[in-house]
């Protein structure tokens, strides 16, 4: 992939992670457990973050080694292949605790493009 393609994928990661964080702002874990539409939306957003991560070139992943590539891909795989046993606590924690530093790092990498 070209550097341009990697930039597009990084933007996809940033946009979807940011949207997920915004969706849970002011909410509690019980809100997620009770709201099926919220569950479906957040699962999809996290899946896209992971899918975009899989599409960043090996060179791009080496260049931006501060991004937890394996974890992003792994979370996507857990959601897609384990669709029948999604742990909402893990989903919540990913968005509340793992995504904010990921967003900050993606913004740093993308700089003025973010």
Topology:
Blueprint: H1 3-24, H2 29-34, H3 36-54, H4 58-63, H5 69-81, H6 88-110
Helix pairs in contact: 1-3, 1-6, 3-5
Task: Provide an overview of this structure.
The chain has 114 residues and is mostly helical. The chain has one domain (3-113). It contains six helices and no strands. It has helices at 3-24, 29-34, 36-54, 58-63, 69-81, 88-110. Helix 1 packs across helix 6 (88-110).
Features:
114 residues; 78% helix
Mean pLDDT: 94
Rg over alpha carbons: 14 Å
Low-confidence parts: none
Structural class: mainly alpha
Q: Summary?
A:
The protein is mainly α and 114 residues long.
């Amino acid at each position: 992939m070209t550097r341009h393609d990697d930039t597009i994928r990084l933007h996809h990661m940033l946009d979807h992670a940011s949207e997920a964080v915004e969706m849970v702002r002011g909410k509690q874990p019980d809100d997620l457990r009770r709201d099926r539409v919220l569950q479906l939306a957040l699962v999809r957003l996290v899946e896209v973050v992971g899918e975009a991560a899989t599409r960043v070139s090996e060179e791009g992943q080496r260049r931006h080694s501060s991004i937890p590539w394996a974890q992003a891909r792994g979370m996507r795989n857990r959601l897609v292949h384990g669709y029948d046993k999604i742990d909402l606590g893990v989903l919540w924690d990913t968005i509340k605790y793992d995504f904010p530093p990921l967003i900050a790092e993606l913004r740093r990498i993308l700089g003025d493009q973010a």
